[in-house]
From TrEMBL:
A single cellular component GO annotation: cytosol
Database matches in InterPro entries: RutC-like_sf (IPR035959), YjgF/YER057c/UK114 (IPR006175), YjgH-like (IPR038743)
Protein name as it appears in the record: RidA family protein
A GO term for molecular function: deaminase activity
Superkingdom of origin organism: Bacteria
Organism: Pulveribacter suum
């Protein structure tokens, strides 16, 4: 079996190792990114919803950059929102700053009741630039 080709963003490897999962795996020309939340460096949530969403996208972008990608390379996104009826508009107004112009990635939105103290999570699949698949 080939070992997993893990991508770690700078400065957060200990957080992922402590929680026993990989932030992203390169495979067959794609980057599969674990769900990203608005966690601070120590793993705690940003208390403000908009700040939490911004931090989730910044954490996501750090992983994409570590693999040589940007959000423009994202082909599929899944978002998880606690109480989407109450939070969707506020979250989506912030997400627009990171989403970029059309054509947009595919999207699945899921309402959940609990995200370990967070209100928003995003996971993506991105196309790796030519030569970036190890």
């Amino acid at each position: 079996m080939t070992p997993r080709d893990v991508v770690f963003p700078a400065g957060r490897q200990a957080l992922y190792e402590r929680n026993r999962y990989s932030p992203a795996i390169r495979s067959n020309g794609f980057l599969f990114v674990s769900g990203q939340v608005g966690s601070r460096e120590d793993g705690s949530p940003e208390p403000d919803l908009e700040a939490q969403v911004r931090r989730a996208f910044e954490n996501l972008n750090a992983i994409l950059a570590a693999a040589g990608c940007t959000f423009d390379d994202v082909v599929d996104a899944t978002v998880f929102i606690v109480d989407p009826e109450a939070h969707f508009e506020r979250i989506w107004s912030v997400a627009a700053d990171y989403w970029g112009p059309a054509p947009h990635p595919t999207l699945t939105g899921i309402g959940v009741t609990w995200l370990y103290g967070f209100q928003f999570e995003i996971k993506v699949i991105a196309r790796l630039p030519q030569g970036a698949d190890h």
